[in-house]
Amino acid sequence: MDVRSLRIIEPNETLYEAYMQFCQNFHYDNWQYINGIGPMLRSTEDETLTCKEDFLDGIKRCLDFRSEDNLPKGWVPCSTYWLIDNSENIHGTACLRHRLSDSLITEGGHIGFAIKPESRNHGAATQLLHTLKLIAKNKNIDAILLTCNKDNAAARRVIEKSSGVKAEEYVSNITGNLIEKFWINL
Fold first, then answer.
1. Residue 57 falls within a domain, yes or no?
2. Which residue range forms the structural domain that includes residue 92?
3. Which of 29, 35, 54, 104 keeps 20 to 30 A from 19, CA to CA?
4. Which residues form a coiled coil (predicted)?
5. CATH number of the domain within which 116 lies
6. Using 50, 70 and 90 to split pLDDT, how confident is the model at 49?
7. Which is nearest to 146 in space by CA: 129, 126, 127?
8. CB of 73 within 8 A of CB of 65?
């Protein structure tokens, strides 16, 4: 994979098949465990929705959640991005939160991201985070907070390679995992 061919786009309805293939790469029964999906997660328990209808609802939420309008309780405005190649295959996803809530300061930070397993170790995550830093700076964010599980050496390397400075380490109240917190000054 040539990372120079990768670019970031906002989610759009034409990439339904590519999005489904991206998510299936993770082999989770529940896609909520894929970081960076954010507003694409199902917002309703309405089992009558088809996958395509749910996908289209997710695209609408991505657009809506960029501002304070229509945010669920506890959410902050965020922008969702997909990392795609020239063939419009999705290699990564990211959610950039425009500000931090108290809970995001504790766990989550400004950015959640995921790279599909077969695209890892080729520089895709580094490129994604580099571009997200530029976008964050354009949104007048002076420093971005990222968190990762201590045992996620790949995420730590990407964060540190992107000028991340470790601020602290703690046990998550949500998962019980050991979490590392990093700041990147922009």
1. yes
2. 3-141
3. 104
4. none
5. 3.40.630.30
6. very low
7. 129
8. no
Describe the strand order of the beta sheet including 143-149 as a list of residue ranges.
Answer: 143-149, 178-185, 165-171
Tokens at 185, concatenated: 């000054």
Element (H, E) at 165: strand 165-171
Q: What is the number of structural domains in the chain?
A: 1
Cα 5–chain centre separation: 20
43 located within any domain: yes
Please give the Cα distance from 178 to 148 (Å, whole number).
Answer: 9
Tokens describing residue 26: 């993770």
Is the residue at 114 inside a domain? Answer: yes
3-state secondary structure of 100: coil
Name which of 81, 58, 54, 78 is nearest 68 in CA terms.
78
Give the Cα separation of 164 and 104 in Å (integer): 17
Residue 171 resides in a domain: no
The structure tokens listed for 70 are: 């229509």
Beta bridge partners of 166: 182
> What residue ranges in 71-160 does DSSP mark as E strands?
78-84, 90-97, 111-115, 143-149
Q: Which residue has the tokens 């703690």?
A: 170
**Strand intervals (E) in 35-164:** 78-84, 90-97, 111-115, 143-149
Chain centre distance of CA 7? 15
